[in-house]
Amino acid sequence: MKVAVSGITPPGCAIAALLSEAGEEVCLLGPPEKIERVYEKILTVRQVWDGRVISVDVDMSPYPPFAPDILVLAERVQDTLSAAERLLPYCREATVATIQEGTKTEQIVARVFPRDNIVTCVLTLGANCAVPGEVTINFKGYMVIGKAYDAPGWREDMVANLMSKAFSTRLGKKIAHFNCTRLLLNLPYCIPGIIGETVQNTFADPEMAEAAVLLLKEGMKIIRKAEVHIETLPDMDDKSLHDLIDAPLHEASRKFMEAVASLSRCPCEGPVLGSIENGETSEIDYQNGELVKIAKALGRDAPLNELMVRLVHHVEKTWRFMTKEEFLACVRKAAPRQAPQQGL
C-alpha cells in the first residue's frame, strides 16, 4: 500500500517509521526547512519499554512522489489546514486518516477534502522528538478508528488494516466521544509547558498534580453538561477514569501522580513544551482553548482552562517560563475554593 504521512512531528515520524518497517511504501511529507533538519533522511524510533531501536530510510518531500492510497495527516492542529490545502491536488482520491489531537481536526480537513474520504484515528502515544527524525516512544497505547462523517466501510477498514501493522487498533462507532476523551486527558499537559519542566518532574509535585486534577474536574463538568458520553480509551478503563475525576482532590492528585509515574521513566516534555522549545506556536488553543469554547457555547465558564491558555500564550510571547510558585499563585486566584484539607 502507498502511504503518505504528512507531519514531521513526533506522531508523524513514529507512524512513518513503524509503517515503513512493516513493509509499506511510505513517504513523509513536510516543508523543506524541516526535512533538511532530519539527518540523512533516516527516521529512528526508540521504544523505552523494551529498548528496541528502529531505523529506516524514508523518502521525504514537500509533496508525495506517488498517488497515495492513504494520506495520514499527523500535523499539529494549527498546521492541518495549510497541509490539507497543499496536498489536495496530489491526494484527491486518497483516504484521509486524521491523527486526532482535539475535537476539530476532521472538521478542518473537511473544509478541503470530501467528507466521505475522512477516517478519524484517536491515538494514545507518548512520543518525544528532541532531535528531528529521532523519536523516543515512552508508551505506545492504542488507536481507535472511526468516522465522523459518512466514509464508506471500505475506507475505514483500509485504515484499520494499515494501522494494525503498527498499533493495537479497534473500531469506535461514536468517534466524537472518543475525541472528547482525548481532549479531556490532554488538559493537564499544558502545565509542563508553562513551567518548563518534564511531565514527570512537574507532576511529582503534589501541588502541581492537584492543579492538573482541577483542570480534569473542570473539563469533565463541561463535557457532562454538553451531554457527551465519555468513551474510555482502550488503555484506560472507565472505572479508573471516573474514580480519579470524582475522588476528593487530595486522593485524586495522588492517583494522578501514580498514573503519570507509571507511564515511563524516560523524561517526557509533553506537546506544549515541545512546541515552545522548538520556537513554534503550541496547540493550546485547540486543547484547553477548545474546552473553553465548548463551555462558552453552553453558557458556562471554564476559568482554570482559560487561565492555562493565557499563561501558555504569555510564555510563548515572553520566552520566560513561570516558577512553580508563580504558577500556583495564579491557579489559587482562578480556582474555585477548596476545603483546607484538599490543598489548593
Summarize, please.
About 45% of the residues lie in helices and about 20% in strands. It has about 350 residues and is an alpha/beta fold.
Attribute tags:
ten-stranded mixed sheet, 2 domains, 46% helix, 10 strands, globular, N-(1-d-carboxylethyl)-l-norvaline Dehydrogenase, domain 2, alpha/beta, 344 residues, single chain, 15 helices, Rossmann fold
Structure description:
The protein has 344 residues and is of the alpha/beta class. The protein folds into two domains: 2-173, NAD(P)-binding Rossmann-like Domain (Rossmann fold), CATH 3.40.50; 181-342, Orthogonal Bundle (N-(1-d-carboxylethyl)-l-norvaline Dehydrogenase, domain 2), CATH 1.10.1040. 46% of the residues lie in helices and 19% in strands. It has 15 helices and ten strands. Strands 1, 2, 3, 4, 5, 6, 7, 8, 9 and 10 form a ten-stranded mixed beta sheet that branches. The longest helix has 20 residues, at 206-225.
Topology:
Layout: E1 2-6, H1 10-21, E2 25-29, H2 32-35, E3 42-47, E4 53-57, E5 59-61, E6 70-73, H3 77-91, E7 95-100, H4 105-109, E8 118-131, E9 134-146, H5 153-163, E10 168-171, H6 175-186, H7 191-195, H8 199-203, H9 206-225, H10 238-246, H11 249-263, H12 271-277, H13 288-297, H14 303-318, H15 324-334
